[in-house]
Amino acid sequence: MPGLEEARRLIAAAGNIFVLTGAGISAESGVPTFRDAMTGLWQQFDPEELASEDAYRRQPALVWEWYLHRRELVAAVHPNPAHHALVALAAQRPFTLVTQNVDGLHQRAGSAGVIELHGNLFANKWLDGCGRCNEATALPGMPPRCNLCGALMRPGVVWFGEDLPRVARYRAEHAAQHCDLCLVVGTSGLVYPAAGLPGLAREHGAPVIVVNPQPSALDQTADIVLSAAAGACLPLLWPPQPAPSAG
Ligand code: APR
């Protein structure tokens, strides 16, 4: 694969790696990416009808049901070799893992300290909560409501038009500015501010490696583009998890 040896060399020499993942790293687990022509979740719905606060206020039951469906879909799949390869890398050296994904598959594979820029599908929050809302105050329903103030429970994901979680964004941008290598896996590079992180790393002198079987908007930011599926490619970029030392 063109670029593979150079990518391996850069990764072996890097002291502080920044990894950004998108829906493509979960594609081989069977979680459809958002913009796949055939399988994209958005293919079935108008995103504005399901993934925005306005939509939730207008039709909370429909949106809540769609998220429950997505939770079932994601709970039924498993991390793939790409997720596991990042766990193996973390066993060899610390790095910062930032994901746009809400599927939690990095954590299920064993990655720790994952920075979730777009939230997590399995987390819950409250819409106009009273501040005391919590799972214990939630009355069952579609969606559940707080029995203290009547606030609606909502999925803990970032909806279109919402700001990213401030701490997550700050940590991601800080890591991008201070890394000495940026590895981008499985993102179309269409959605900002996440898509701006590789450019930020490059501005601060870090080479950028992109892993994607298709061209992406980040290719012109990249020093190396590995045109490959993440599950096949990532395990080739660094040694597998070191065998536990004998004795
Ligand atoms: N390995 C690597 N990349 C892959 C694979 C694979 N096996 N399969 C698909 N891809 C690539 C596609 O070529 C595409 O470029 O993954 C990318 C997925 O792009 P999107 O569907 O746009 O997903 P993503 O880039 O993560 O979207 C960013 O947009 O919809 C919002 O909030 C949502 O977090 C999401 C954000």
Automatic annotation (TrEMBL):
**Keywords, ordered alphabetically:** Cytoplasm, Metal-binding, NAD, Transferase, Zinc
What is its EC class? transferase
Organism, per UniProt? Cupriavidus necator (strain ATCC 17699 / DSM 428 / KCTC 22496 / NCIMB 10442 / H16 / Stanier 337)
Reactions this protein catalyses = N(6)-succinyl-L-lysyl-[protein] + NAD(+) + H2O = 2''-O-succinyl-ADP-D-ribose + nicotinamide + L-lysyl-[protein]; N(6)-acetyl-L-lysyl-[protein] + NAD(+) + H2O = 2''-O-acetyl-ADP-D-ribose + nicotinamide + L-lysyl-[protein]
Name one cellular component (GO) term: cytoplasm
Report the residue ranges that make up the Deacetylase sirtuin-type domain in this protein. 1-247
The EC number(s) given in the record are 2.3.1.286
Q: What is this protein called?
A: NAD-dependent protein deacylase
Q: What does this protein do?
A: NAD-dependent lysine deacetylase and desuccinylase that specifically removes acetyl and succinyl groups on target proteins. Modulates the activities of several proteins which are inactive in their acylated form.
- State the Pfam families in the record: SIR2
Query: Which family does the UniProt entry place this protein in?
Result: Belongs to the sirtuin family. Class III subfamily.
Active site per database record? 118 (proton acceptor)
